[in-house]
Specification:
This protein is of the alpha+beta class. The chain has 20 helices and six strands. It has two domains: 263 residues, Orthogonal Bundle (2-methylcitrate dehydratase PrpD); 124 residues, 2-methylcitrate dehydratase PrpD (60s Ribosomal Protein L30, Chain: A, 2-Layer Sandwich).
């Protein structure tokens, strides 16, 4: 363990975990979940190539310096690793379809995977490819650190943790990928902390900057790796130090002990939750509840007079927003009433339901959304997503109630492997151009055996539209 008068026990332990973890320390369940969520994240990243303002974003980011190091998924632009990570991180998150760690309120894969794949490409081009075993070990370390920082925070979410905590985990993953020691990990994390940003105002307004903040922190982690490799000494006591992440970004409300106890014991990859629907995870409870009640009791959307939910503070605060006329897609995805309206009007919640102005302005959706109301429950945990309780009152006065202990997609109520692959296949057809069937099968096969790959960067070309069909 490094002897550093500036480093606290917390940052020492995180850095040691990242620097020393190896593939042989990952159990079968962790490796399986890594493959599950790599495939899921690549899929939603391909689908995200059709996200809001993506053409403009690629053009703008492509002008941020020269570079031919890494690839934008689906469209194929060759950019610097830093710029490609921004775009790919945005594509992973922009549809609100990427996995999440509920206890941390962090979407780690968007930040960690986008930067790791960009770095793997530039290493491959330099003749120093990243093999699958090293990639999985570094990925596990990055997800552990990003999510355990969120777990340690006990106060209400103030900043956008997928960007802030995600960036710090990404720095640790990249440092592990390049074999840096504990001091090198701390330098990479410290340099990233010095660039950390991510406001929830973008969430409140439904701005595309929400997903871009993830990209900015992925870029920051890559820049920080470059600095750490050059030997730049960054601040080290950046977790619980006087001006550290938990004291400033998380407002000093934290408890590190439970998080640190999980290091090396419980891989946080196994605790990730799927998003079965392309909307804010906090909106999924109402869809799960309605689906279960309608299947059990046999009523239809037209039979419903009103839907009332009792939800934890985090759900009420972040997605209990009013349904608006002519909403932007990013706002609608983060509005529980609108998402419920989509399900009741169409019997599904999927990428096309937020893709066009006609879909967002659909009177049938807004009529169903008007039936939904929310009430704050007495859950004392400001970061809890569940349990959530819903009451449905039918036109004839019949009342049905349900409490969702774990929303569909939670590790205790997960998607099956077949459902995960089905989601990937759908996402591959939702991109700016549908991916060819042979490419879909090739990605599934490559991820399934990723630990055997000598160069994980060989996955990236499979994400591209075929020649002559680029968006």
């Amino acid at each position: 363990m490094p002897q550093d008068r500036y480093a606290s026990d917390a940052v020492d332990r995180l850095a040691e975990h990242a620097a020393r973890i190896g593939f042989d320390q990952l159990d079968a369940a962790t490796v399986a979940k890594a493959k599950t969520f790599i495939l899921d994240s690549i899929g939603v990243g391909i689908a995200g190539s059709s996200g809001a303002s993506i053409d403009m974003l690629r053009e703008v980011v492509g002008g941020w310096g020269d570079g031919d190091e890494a690839t934008v998924w689906m469209s194929g632009e060759r950019l610097s690793a830093h710029a490609a990570a921004i775009v790919n991180a945005y594509q992973i998150h922009c549809l609100e379809f990427d996995c999440v760690h509920e206890g941390a309120v962090v979407h780690p894969m968007a930040t960690v995977l986008s930067a790791m794949m960009a770095h793997a490409e530039r290493r491959s081009a330099a003749g120093d490819p990243v093999n699958g075993r090293e990639f999985l070990a570094a990925l596990s370390a990055g997800v552990d650190i990003a999510t355990l920082l969120g777990v340690a925070a006990t106060g209400p979410v103030r900043f956008f943790r997928p960007a802030t905590a995600g960036g710090l985990g990404t720095a640790a993953a990249l440092a592990r990928l390049d074999g840096l020691d504990e001091a090198g990990v701390m330098n990479a994390m410290g340099a990233t902390y010095s660039q950390t940003g991510g406001t929830l105002q973008a969430h409140a307004e439904g701005s595309m900057l929400l997903g871009l903040q993830i990209g900015f922190n992925a870029r920051a982690a890559l820049c920080s790796l470059d600095l750490a490799r050059a030997g730049v000494r960054a601040p080290h006591d950046i977790v619980d130090g006087q001006y550290g992440y938990l004291r400033l970004v998380e407002n000093g409300e934290f408890d590190l002990a439970p998080a640190l106890e999980k290091l090396g014991i419980e891989a946080q990859l196994t605790q990730l939750a799927h998003k079965p629907f392309p909307s804010g995870r906090l909106t999924h409870g109402v869809v799960d509840a309605l689906s279960r009640l309608m299947e059990t009791h046999g009523f239809a959307a037209g039979d419903i007079a009103k839907v009332h939910g009792r939800v934890p503070p985090l759900v009420h605060r972040l997605v209990g927003r009013p349904d608006l006329a002519e909403p932007q897609a990013n706002y609608a995805k983060l509005c529980l009433a609108f998402v419920a309206g989509v399900f009741l009007a169409r019997g599904r919640v999927d990428v096309p339901d937020f893709a066009t102005r006609a879909m967002l302005d659909d009177e049938a959706v807004h009529a169903q959304a008007a039936k939904v109301s929310l009430e704050l429950d007495d859950n004392p945990d400001p970061n809890a997503l569940d349990p959530q309780s819903f009451t449905v009152t039918l036109n004839d006065g019949t009342v049905h109630e349900i409490t969702i202990e774990h929303v569909f997609g939670h590790p205790d109520n997960p998607l099956s492997e077949a459902q995960n692959v089905d989601k990937f296949r759908r996402c591959a057809t939702y991109g700016a151009h549908p991916l060819a069937e042979e490419a879909i099968e090739a990605i599934i096969e490559a991820v399934a055996r990723i630990e055997t790959l000598d160069d994980v960067a060989q996955i990236v070309p499979l994400t591209l539209a075929s020649d002559g069909e680029k968006p």
